[in-house]
Amino acid sequence: MIKKYKQTIKQEFFFIGFSSALIIAFVFILLASVGIYLLSMDNAQKKLEMANLHISTYTNGVLESLVMSTKTNAAFPGAMDYEQGYAEAEEKLLQLFSATTQANPNIKYSFAGYEDGTLLIEGYETPVGFDARLRPWYASAVERYPRLSVGLPYQDALTYEWLVSVSLAMFDEQGDLKGVMAVDCSLEYIKSIMTEVSYYDSQMNYVLDENRVVFVHNNSNYLHQSVDTIVPGLSEKFSEDSGFIRYKIDGKDRLAFYHRLEEADWIIVSAIDASEVLGPIVRTVSYIMLALVLLAIVLGLGQVKVYERRFVKPITALRDHISDITSGHKIRTEHPYIYSNNELANIAGKIEEMAETSLRKKNDELRLILDATSDGILVLDLEGNIIHTNEKYSKFKDHLLKIQVDQPYNYEQLFRREETFEVLHINGKMVLEQYTCPVFNNGDLKGQLWRYRDITEKFRAEEDLKWLATTDSLTGLWNRRYFLERGEIEVEAVLRTGLPLSLLYIDIDFFKSINDSFGHRIGDEVLLYIGMTLKSQVRNMDVVARLGGEEFCVLAPNTSLQSANLLAEKLRRFFETNIYQQEEKKVHFTISVGVATYTEDIGSIEDLLVAADAACYQAKNQGRNSVVTSDMFR
User: Fold this and answer.
1) What's the CATH number of domain 374-458, 2.60.120.280, 3.30.70.890, 3.30.390.30, 3.30.450.20?
2) Residue 219 gets which letter from DSSP?
3) Measuring CA to CA, which of 312, 470, 572, 625 is 20 to 30 A from 433?
């Protein structure tokens, strides 16, 4: 028998429902206001950052093209040795400059200045008394050598037009300054880039040079002034490579994004009035607040009582009943819910029946899937009770208990929906891959899943491959492949830190006679002895490798040529004064060593190896049993 739901204390319920609607509306207004503010500010910052990065990328690309053209021109044969009066050389260089300006539309002039004051330039009339050595681009290139002077603003000597230069000083092998190779582009072109992207009416894009002086700005009053003069202390805010800053100027709060260019020590700033962002936010929040308050009043009057009595409570009761079924809890039958009408009662009965049938089917399917997989599966609920396991997990369980006794159940980790991967080594015999993840149902956290996969064979195969790929099988030293890979890393460290890097190239003197006299077995033992000796005589940070045959190498980071030479001499004396003895056989041998240190003339680890090899070859030509450094025979 179905009894109809009867409502009492109507006025009290109406007051509670109406108050709840107003509170919900107020909370929603508050959250919406915060959300709109954060979203709008984030959108403004993204637009500002996007505009700035677009401008910065384009500007940096222009400077990179100027740098490339300058380097190319400076490397041109005869560019450094040009002397005034040689018509053929002058014609070739002018042709080069013409080709450069035609190939790169960003370039206005391509030219070179020399130590006699001469300016060599195509399509330009040199002023009377012009001396290239007195020009800013010339002095800056000499000061910054061996680096390029990139992005120097200066005025043309004839037209007083503002230009931006990239220049490189040219020194000969004796260290004498020969001249400066340079290209430039119009500062007006840089200004045009600043106006390409603008998302706001108040947006201004400007550029600061290395001294934080404004040299590109829409407002001419700020040009050629220190940014700290315009806004005191503003330069201190440009502490990172890029970021957002806020400052006040002319009584207005400004929101800005800046980016430091890679090629030149420029800072490009994109700034807008904060009021242009905050104004729309205030208006939007006001409209939303008014609309939600009116909506809350209307809905509170008409729907609170109807939905609560006829729909919300029956649906809530049905939800609780289905939850009991799906969670496996005991069904509550002592106080069944009385539905407000027969239709809802019939629907609830059908849904409950379908839920029970579907749950049984899903459980059967899940059991088949879990048992069929080759991985071990364990699922726990929030209290740590086992929900599901499979047969494969049962096989892993005893092994796991040896290393995972009372494994902690990290509820905070589950709540953040974190997944973890871990490789477990068990007794040195088995390697398991452990994967864990939280289990959610309709957005609600229900527990955690562990998956275990046997990767023992895969792990061992990968370890064997790593060893074979990088190790010399006879001596156990690093092989040539690993030596070159490690060498490239050390060369990059030299370029980054400026610390020295040296290489010893070691060759056994008359090793063939050892094989001929004592046999290849003794020869192999000698190679093994040399490898062990080298490792014991050098530092742990040094890289010892066998390149092949009787050739060995020692790569010594943070070691000067003089220190490397001392190490080579130490090794040479050791093998000269010690005899290798195996049973009754005594083998006396010496080594020849070539030593080289990384310099600007050496571009890679292969070049360093070639230099050391050449020095070793020279040592063998000098009678063997000696040490030769690469600078001794240049």
Assistant:
1) 3.30.450.20
2) S
3) 470
Q: If you ran DSSP here, which 8-state letter would residue 492 be given?
A: H
Q: Quick one: three-class SS letters along 58-126?
A: HHHHHHHHHHHHHHHHHCCCCCCCCCCCCHHHHHHHHHHHHHHHHHCCCCCEEEEEECCCCEEECCCCC
DSSP 235-290: GGG--SSEEEEEEEETTEEEEEEEEE-SSSS-EEEEEEETHHHHHHHHHHHHHHHH
Q: What's the rounded Cα separation, in Å, for the pair 378 and 376?
A: 7
Q: What are the residue numbers of the active site?
A: 550
Could you tell me the two tokens for 434? Answer: 């452990």
Tell me how far apart the alpha carbons of residues 408 and 450 are, in angstroms, rounded to a whole number. 13
Q: Which residue has the tokens 């407002």?
A: 219
pLDDT in tens, 140-151: 999 999 999 998
Element containing residue 430 per DSSP (H, E): strand 430-441
Is residue 263 a contact partner of residue 67, using CB atoms and an 8 Å limit?
Answer: yes
Three-state secondary-structure class, residue 161? coil
Q: What residues contact 342, with CB distance under 8 A and at least 6 apart?
A: 2
Tell me: cis bond preceding 146? Omega within 30 of 0 counts: yes
Q: Are 206 and 199 within 8 A, CB to CB?
A: no
Distance CA 100, CA 414 (A): 62
Residue 214 or 553, more confident: 553
516: phi then psi, degrees, rounded to nearest 5: -70, -35
State how far the Cα of 491 lies from the Cα of 473, in Å rounded to an integer.
Answer: 27
Amino acid in the structure at residue 136: P
Q: How far apart, in whole angstroms, are the C-alpha atoms of residue 74 and residue 15?
A: 86
Higher pLDDT, 261 or 536: 536
Please name the helix (run of DSSP H) or strand (run of DSSP E) that holds residue 598, with its range, or none.
none
- Using an 8 Å Cβ cutoff, are 532 and 477 in contact? no
Q: Is pLDDT at 2 greater than 50 in this prediction?
A: no
Which among 529, 28, 520, 15 is positioned nearest to 285, based on CA atoms?
28
Q: Can you read off the two tokens belonging to residue 587? A: 């083998």
Give 603's Cβ-side CA count (13 Å radius): 0
Task: Return phi, psi of residue 102, to 5°.
Answer: -75, -35
**Could you tell me the fold of the domain covering 9-302?**
Beta-Lactamase (3.30.450)
Give 95-106 pLDDT, tens digit per residue. 888 889 998 888
DSSP 378-412: EEEETTS-EEEE-HHHHHHHHHHHHH-TT----HH
Cα 507–chain centre separation: 42
DSSP state of 174: T
Q: For domain 471-632, give the fold.
A: Alpha-Beta Plaits (3.30.70)
